[in-house]
Amino acid sequence: MTLKDCLAMVSNLPDRVDRLILSGGEPLTERVKLCAILEAVVEKYLGETQVMLQTNGDLLTGERLDALIARGVSRIDIASIDRFHKHQGQRRS
Known about the structure:
CATH architecture: 3-Layer(aba) Sandwich
Low-confidence stretches: none
């Protein structure tokens, strides 16, 4: 999807939602697009919607986590159904 299409989807969301879950593919592969979407969500809902992100965690770093929190993400779910990720089975501290 283009960024324009993504932002159009945000503008077409209902005026009020309790929570919004962003998932993929892998949303962290399109960081510029993801940041623009998060900024549009914050602008639309003024921080009154819980924003969650679902990721496989491979691209998540401390710096990226801080950036997501700064853009209104309040929950990150790390989920994967396969064993092909570089950090499979390892816990990060």
